[in-house]
Amino acid sequence: MKNWNDMSDADFRQEVRRFLETEYPATLRHAAHRPRIHELRPWLQKLHAAGWSAPAWPAEYGGMGLNPAKLLILYDEEQRLGVSRGVDMGVQMVGPLVLHFGTQAQKDHWLPRILSYETIWCQGYSEPGAGSDLANLRTQAVLEGDEFVINGQKIWTTMAQDATHIFMLVRTDPNAPKKQQGISFLLARMDQPGITVRPIKTLAGEEEFCEVFLDNARTPRENLVGEMNKGWTMAKALLSFERIFIGSPNLAQNALIQLEGFARGRGAFEDPVFRDRFAQAALDVEDHAALYTRFADQLKRGETLGSDVSILKVWVTETFQRITELMIEAAGPDGGTVGPLQINNVGVDILSSFYKARPSTIYGGSNEIQRNILAKAVLELPE
Ligand SMILES: Cc1cc2nc3c(=O)[nH]c(=O)nc-3n(C[C@H](O)[C@H](O)[C@H](O)COP(=O)(O)OP(=O)(O)OC[C@H]3O[C@@H](n4cnc5c(N)ncnc54)[C@H](O)[C@@H]3O)c2cc1C
After folding, report:
1. Whole-structure pTM over 0.85, yes or no?
2. Which domains does the chain have, with CATH numbers?
3. Atom 35 of ligand 1, nearest CA residue
4. At what angle do helices 250-266 and 310-330 cross, to 10 degrees?
5. How many Å apart are CA 63 and CA 91, to the nearest integer?
């Protein structure tokens, strides 16, 4: 089996770039919408066949076993080429959960099915009334014989309409003294009478996420991952390494490249006010990239990231939003055009970039919550 970590960073980057450029469908690069499963199937099959489904998993479980340095290069190349996140919650979230906390039987059953995309997963955490304050969640699971019976509602569940399975946080002990206690982690099939999925249309007109209603839904006892009532600690442990990726500079860098091309085509640089604002955005992108490199170096040295990493997400998403707003302004009366605008014979879809930027300050922990973390843990400000 190939040991990717033995390659030089430059060789690895070249290999990744070659693979992505050859195999990732051109039609899905920088896609304006989050692609659905039927669009992604051929690509997922190629990923699986090449052994590239799970970059961060250990090689003994079918992953690429990449160290943090190599992983950052892979994600960097994916974002550069506009590879969609697609339906990655099995590989990114359930797989690591089962790897860390699952029994051997759970690993043997679930990991190969996640790798081959035989199972497609959605994340059932958020509920009406339990978003930023997730520990408020009220969906209940009660053990009846060998099955959990689940009642409640999840919301904002990305691509639930395409998922074969859901992993969710549920309340298993409503009498626990603290709300963070008494929460467990369950896996369940989506195709059962107790589960109803209702897609929600976004501002962009896409059905990207859904409401999921659980009405006496059932799952066997062996689909409890980790200890009963210890789900909260597990959910938090899983988030630690992810925090740098959500703050990667690519979102803003790609938008800046798009803005520059668009503004040149439109002659917007003749306006000194636009030039000023463009320069400010470009400097923000550069500053952010420099800071990201500092955190990435920490990871490469094997260090754990501190709470200060929250700054990356705040900065990149707000810069991303400012850039897409500038793009709308530079388009003048065409700023509200749905679909691509033709600039020098190249189609640029500015409105979908604008729409993509809107929720980025909400998902992955809203920016207000990230600022609270910075205020408390880094600046040590009072409550
Ligand atoms: C595109 C997208 C995809 C998503 N996909 C999923 C998914 O697949 N699965 C899933 O479970 N969830 C998903 N979510 C939900 C996401 O995790 C929540 O939207 C997020 O946690 C915020 O929760 P909320 O929407 O309930 O807002 P609330 O928590 O109600 O917050 C509302 C506003 O109040 C602010 N606020 C809240 N508390 C504080 C505080 N203490 N101090 C200061 N300000 C505060 C927030 O920042 C926000 O501006 C997705 C969201 C988006 C936008």
Report:
1. yes
2. 4-86 (no CATH), 121-229 (2.40.110.10), 243-378 (1.20.140.10)
3. 368
4. 20
5. 10
274 lines ligand 1 (CB under 6 A): no
Is residue 184 a contact partner of residue 230, using CB atoms and an 8 Å limit? Answer: yes
Residue 242 annotated among the catalytic residues of the structure: yes
Quote the distance between the C-alpha of residue 34 and its chain's center.
11
The helix or strand, by DSSP H or E, that contains position 185, with its residue range, turns out to be: strand 183-189
pLDDT of residue 216: 98
Short-list 53, 30, 51, CA closest to 121:
53
pLDDT tens per residue across span 119-156:
999 999 999 999 999 999 999 999 999 999 999 999 99
CA of 132 relative to ligand 1 center, distance in Å: 5
Q: How far apart are the first and last CA of the chain?
A: 52
Regarding the beta carbon of 156 and ligand 1, being less than 6 Å apart is answered yes
Which pLDDT belongs to residue 318? Answer: 97
Instruction: Indicate the SS3 state at residue 83.
Output: coil
Integer-rounded Cα radius of gyration of the chain: 22
Probe target for ligand 1 pocket from 186, 190, 200, 362, with the most ligand atoms within 8 Å of CB: 362
Pocket of ligand 1 contains residue 358 by CB under 6 Å? no
Residue 76 CA to residue 16 CA, distance in Å, equals 10
Ligand 1 near 200 CB (within 6 A): no
| Sign, Cα dihedral of 278, 29, 158, 89 | negative
Q: 68-81 vs 250-266: helix axis angle to the nearest 10?
A: 30
Half-sphere exposure of 293 (CA within 13 A, CB side): 6
